[in-house]
Amino acid sequence: MRYDAIGTRENIKIVDTSKNDNIQIDILEYQKLVGATNSSQATRLEYLQRQHVCPRQAVIYITNSSVKVEPGAMSYFQGDLEMVSGVTPGNFLGRAISGKLTGEGTAQPEYRGSGMLVLEPTYEHNIVLELQKGEEIIVDKGMFQCAQGSVTVKPFMQKNISSAVLGGEGIFQMSISGPGMVILESKVPMCEVDIIEMDNDVLKVDGNFAILRTAGINFTVERSAKTLIGSAASGEGLVNVYRGTGQVWLAPTIKIYSMV
Q1: What phi and psi, each to the nearest 5 degrees, are found at residue 121?
Q2: HSE value, Cβ hemisphere, 13 Å, CA-based, for 78
Q3: How many angstroms from the chain centroid is the CA of residue 11?
Q4: How far is it, in rounded angstroms, from Cα 139 to Cα 156?
Q5: How close are the terminal C-alpha atoms of the chain, in Å?
Q6: Of 11, 37, 60, 193, which is least surrounded by CB within 10 A?
C-alpha cells in the first residue's frame, strides 16, 4: 500500500526523495502555515515565510524492513509496523550513560514491518545519505534523526585528549556505519556545506564547524603555528586539525547564524 496523501496537500512540497529496495524517504516542506489564531503569531509566521524559513518533515515508507529513530522524533506511523524499544533491563544503564554523553536518546526505538512513518516537523535542515557496507561517518552531537535498521549507530570516543577537551565537540560524538539510509538534522542546508576531499592530506579549521567526517580522518587540536608566540601573533591560537583520507564536511555559515 502507498500512503501519499500527505505529500499532495496544497501547502506542502516534496523537496527531496531518496530510496532503495526497502525504504523511501520524502522530505516535505510546508510552504505556508495558515493556522495562526492571533495577529502577533500571524506576523511572525509571515516574516518567516517571506524569508523562506519553512518547517520540514521526513516521511519514511517502509517495505518489509525497519528503521531506528531518535527518541521523540516520531510524529505518527501507519500500517503494519511494530515498535520495539531496544531497551532491556540488561542494557538500560549502559544506554542511559552513552545517551547522556553523546546528547542522543537513551535508545533508538525501531519500527519494523511495512507502512509509513512520519517524523516531527523541524525548522532545521534534513540531510539524507545512503551509506555502503563498511562505510562509517562521525557526526556532530544531536545530528542523528533516523536510520535504516541495517545501520549501526553508536557513541564514538575521541582518540586523544586535545580533541576531546579543546575541540568543541566533547569527548563523544556519534558513529554511524552502513549499509543503509540515514537522516541527519543540520543547522545549515546542503548548499552551504563545503565537502572537502582529502587524500593523505591535512586540513586546519579555525572553529568547530566541521559537522561530519568519514572514519578515515583523524581529528586533533593543535597550535596554528609551530611556536606559542607564532600562534599568539597570528590571532588564531588553536585550530582543529583533520588528517588522513576521506571527507570532512564544513559548515562555515554556522558562525553567521549565531551572530544574528
Answers
A1: -70, 150
A2: 11
A3: 25
A4: 9
A5: 46
A6: 37
Is the link from the previous residue into 121 a cis peptide, with omega within 30 of 0? no
Instruction: Assess contact for 53 and 123: CB atoms under 8 A.
Output: yes
Q: Which three cell numbers stand for residue 197?
A: 576531499
Q: Give 26-71 pLDDT, tens digit per residue.
A: 999 999 888 899 999 999 999 998 988 999 999 999 999 999 999 9
In this predicted model, what pLDDT tens digit does every residue of 167-205 receive, in sequence order? 455 577 899 999 999 999 999 999 999 999 999 999 999
Element (H, E) at 147: strand 144-148
Please choose, from the candidates 106, 118, 124, the residue with its C-alpha nearest in 3D space to the C-alpha of residue 146.
118
Query: Per-residue confidence at 228, pLDDT binned at 50, 70, 90?
Result: very low
The dihedral built from the CA positions of residue 197, 177, 7 and 33, taken in this order, carries a sign that is: negative
pLDDT of 260 reads: 79
**What's the one-letter identity of residue 24?**
Q
Instruction: Single out the residue of 64, 1, 54 nearest to residue 28, CA to CA.
Output: 54
For 82, other C-beta atoms within 10 Å of its C-beta total 11
Q: What's the rounded Cα separation, in Å, for the pair 33 and 250?
A: 32
Nearest CA-CA partner of 73 in 113, 103, 105: 105
Rounded to two decimals, the pTM is: 0.84
